[in-house]
């Protein structure tokens, strides 16, 4: 009986997805990527590390099925967020820190499944060099932006603190935000990394001419100048960091906060000034309800002979607001702005009854429920419009855009970082303020109760600074700018294009890969 010839096992299809790392190594790479990504943010601010961090996560996701991608994404997210937002444990302990970090890690894990699907479907759907070097990296980058938009908008008002583009406030790539916004910069960063990964996988070093395309793209991104805005004169602005007892658990005597601010303002008396700025929480109570505080504010404005942009918790009916008001020499404040996005579990408690049943001690500490502001983030100072953002509102694109679109020629960010003394929180927020200056082409006055405070030029350079945990005052001739950058105008539209475009291309890739089978 003839012996049947052995049939060779079918060859693996060149387009069949396969994980390039075993799961155990992928998990290690994800953890390392999360650690490197944290180092890209302040206080280390090693912005270059954001690129290998992205590369490690993408390598860990390539060819991964949904379960493996979920694990890889969770490990990356947990390491990254536990390190990045460790400042949340400064006063309230482990529970808020762990809750925030684990929530963001879980959402990251769910979202990166889409990136792993892109790596499974698109090489089969678009197998040529253009598909591998352009379509696949662009889709991966767009899905990364979709991840950032998801985390930045849900649950409640989201937490857009960890956007990749924000790591680059001191890098040569920062000027790209003036053309495409922060989300656009995130897109280009991931696109570069994903394209380089595919260049290696396709062994482009064997075809030197093909390497010219990735190299040219990187060069163009590095040398792109800032989008031009027009000079509109100057404004002499004083900003005061009182270093008073403004923390949630600080012991304070009556009027101790406003007194600290007043004392720190003394060096500015007699100086020519167009506007005086105090930080968020720079006064002890509602000046519209407390005549003694109102009189103190009026006295300060008359001594400096300039209006005072102050901030306090204010009450209107049954609602409370975090309010910045322009206090004038006649003792009135007809212009004000209420914080657009009060911090969940910091300034209000969503679904209070539910969370109170779980951690009543912590929820009970938050006695006041702040409402969301609806008025424009703008005040007019003698014909000059000043854009505003109160504390964490600096991370929300729509607040910054509304101010600049409304005619703001300079931006003022008021913040109270007293509850995070000695942590990286203030430095991270300061980096975001610097990026807003570059993105909008506007000078920024970032003033904190306890520091560090800075005045930043439209190019992102620091023009004046105050050290943390010290009282002090700055007085500078701040450059005014007019005109809108492309990043401000097209930024929101580009976000939507990347979000829906990434999902759309992913669906097309799924359909074409199934048809190709």
From N to C, what is the helix and strand string?
HHHHHHHHEHEHEEEHHEEHEHEEEEH
Strand order of the largest sheet: 5-4-3-2-1-12
Note the overall shape: globular
- What is the strand content? 15-25%
Low-confidence runs:
1-15
From the alpha carbons, calculate the radius of gyration and give it in angstroms. Answer: 26 Å
* Head-to-tail CA distance between termini: 38 Å
Helix/sheet category: alpha/beta
Task: Produce the secondary structure layout.
Layout: H1 23-40, H2 50-61, H3 66-84, H4 89-92, H5 94-125, H6 129-151, H7 177-201, H8 208-223, E1 230-241, H9 256-265, E2 275-277, H10 291-304, E3 308-316, E4 319-327, E5 335-338, H11 352-358, H12 360-364, E6 378-381, E7 384-390, H13 397-405, E8 410-415, H14 425-440, E9 443-448, E10 453-456, E11 462-466, E12 472-482, H15 486-516
Parallel strand pairs: 1-2, 2-3, 7-8, 8-9
Antiparallel strand pairs: 1-12, 3-4, 4-5, 6-7, 9-10, 10-11
